[in-house]
Design brief:
single chain; 144 residues; alpha+beta; Endonuclease, Chain A
Length: 144
């Protein structure tokens, strides 16, 4: 299947990169628990939620763009998932760059004293309360 570049461009421009449904769902849970945070704070990696004083940065990683789609869709590995399409090499390289960028951001923030939490979109959808429990425990522990 090949589609015109302008159609692909229109589709890609409509993909949200902030304030997604999973992000909004996650933000309400800590707030209900009395935890206060900043949203999309301007710092390395632009975390989705930042607890400034305890230095906890939370990223909600979408499965496709951050390299988890092959697992959620039942493929055996990353390469097999991307080998199935006409433009597989392009997308595999693009997603690998995203994964490398995520690793770099995580390493840099940790080196600066931040606790970095990366949460898969599917984990959040499967059990929001469990994810919120983990965040709360880490934030309260680091704040103490």
């Amino acid at each position: 299947m090949t589609r015109p570049p302008e159609v692909t461009s229109r589709i890609m421009s409509s993909v949200r990169n902030s304030n997604t449904a999973p992000e909004r769902a996650l933000r309400s849970a800590p707030h209900r628990r009395g935890l206060r945070y900043r949203v999309h704070r301007r710092m390395l990696g632009k975390p989705d939620i930042t607890f400034v004083a305890p230095r906890v940065a939370v990223f909600v990683d979408g499965d496709y763009w951050h390299g988890n789609a092959w697992r959620t869709r039942g493929y055996t590995d990353f390469g097999t998932y991307y080998a199935r399409g006409d433009n597989g090499d392009f997308w595999a390289a693009r997603i690998r760059r995203n994964i490398e960028r995520d690793q770099h951001v995580t390493e840099c923030l940790r080196a600066d004293g931040w606790c970095v939490m990366r949460i898969w979109e599917t984990d959040l959808s499967a059990n929001l309360n469990e994810v919120a429990d983990r965040i709360e425990a880490i934030v309260r522990d680091r704040a103490a």
